[in-house]
Structures are given as structure tokens and as C-alpha cells.
Amino acid sequence: MTAAKTNKKPLPKKGRLIAFEGIDGSGKSTQARLLYKQLQSEGIPVWLTAEPTSNQIGTLIRQGFSGAISFDHRTIAGLFVADRLDHILNPEFGMKAKVEQGYTVICDRYYLSSFAYQGSHMPMEWVMQANSMAVELLKPDLTIFIDVTPELAMRRIQETRANTELYETEKNLKKVRTNYRKAISLMQPSERIVSLNGKEGVESLHKKIMMLLKTV
Ligand code: TYD
User: Fold this and answer.
1) How far does residue 111's CA lie from ligand 1's centre (Å)?
2) What share of residues in the chain are helix, strand, coil (percent, to 5)?
3) How do residues 24-49 score in pLDDT, each as one tens digit?
């Protein structure tokens, strides 16, 4: 069967990595999914993934968040580093291999999440240092930061979820948002990070993201 008949374009020589970031309740996962569906409908080879992953280390992290296992925040920070390295380097589902194969990889949260979240419990410099290998191995071609106020985020979380996780209090989200801004200003000289207002409607944000994709 030819590529045209299946509406599947051949894999480009090199793919790209698009990361979505934002505090809980920002709407980033909705936008990541919409982008995935749109690119897929255009026949572009696309791979949607997220951190924490659903693999062994990511599962441990989620057990820590739900309270099933008790971890110190520093241990969680270390687990995120390990989960991320596996997510980059794994020969089967690793993002690096996928990008090299020509996929557009969409990652719902990446290292900026660690800088912002773990950086609210320990020095951000430590978290950045611990993640430096990931930064060196695979930088996003574009990071989309969906910015919302902690008040709006909390309202959305309370409306849509049965139970909230460890980090989801307004005070924490405020700290995390401040850290995101600090991390973005530290990383922006060497990475492309675009901040979008998450108060906007889902469709209008999606259109802006599609425009941005044309530039990567
Ligand atoms: P989230 O994207 O909210 O997943 P879900 O929608 O499935 O709950 O991520 C779960 C939590 O993980 C979120 O509160 C942020 C936190 N997190 C960190 O603290 N550090 C990290 O490096 C990452 C990737 C996530």
C-alpha cells in the first residue's frame, strides 16, 4: 500500500520533541492530546507520552504521590531523574530513539516540572544539577508553558477530580508557578520556551499551538 493511500506520511529524517508544562489544572494535558490528535489526522508520525511515566519507576512515583508508599521529597526528586533518564534512553519506548526515527514526540511534562515542583521543597540548583544529563541528552525543540493563576487551577481541579494529589493545594501551586517562571528565565537563553495564557478557551489555545508547531 502506498503512503498516500494510508494517509501516513513517511517518517521525516529527524523528528522533534514538544514538551507541555504548567501547574496542575492548567489544561496542558488537554492541549497535548488535542495536538496529538490533530497531527495524527494529518498523517504526521506522532508519539504521545508523559512524565511521570507509566513504567516501573513512574509507577513508584505515583505510589508515592497517592500515599501508598512513603518517600522523602529528596527521594522523589531522585526517582524523577531515574524515570526521566529511562524515558529518554529506553531502546523500546525512549523519546530519544523516537525523535531520531522521525516522530514528533509530545511529552506531557518534562524536566521543567522537576525544577518547578521538586524545586519547591529543595534548592532548585540541586534539582537542575541532578537533571543535567537529561538536559544534555534531549532538549525539547519547543516547550509550551500553559500559564494559569493558582486560583483558576484549583477551581478546575476541584471541579474535575474526585481526589487531589500531594502537591495540589493553592499555596503549593503558587510556589510551583513562581518556580516555573524562575526556571523558564534560567533556561530560555538556551531553549525555546513559549508561555501561553491558559485562561483562553481550549479551541483558541489549540489554534495558537498549531501555529507554533509550524515554526518548529
Ligand atoms: P500530572 O501531569 O498532573 O499527571 P496526572 O494528570 O496523571 O495526575 O503529574 C502528576 C504530578 O507529578 C503533578 O502534580 C506534578 C508532579 N511532577 C513532579 O513533581 N515532578 C516532575 O518532574 C514531574 C514530571 C511531575
Assistant:
1) 11
2) 50, 10, 35
3) 999 999 999 999 999 999 999 999 99
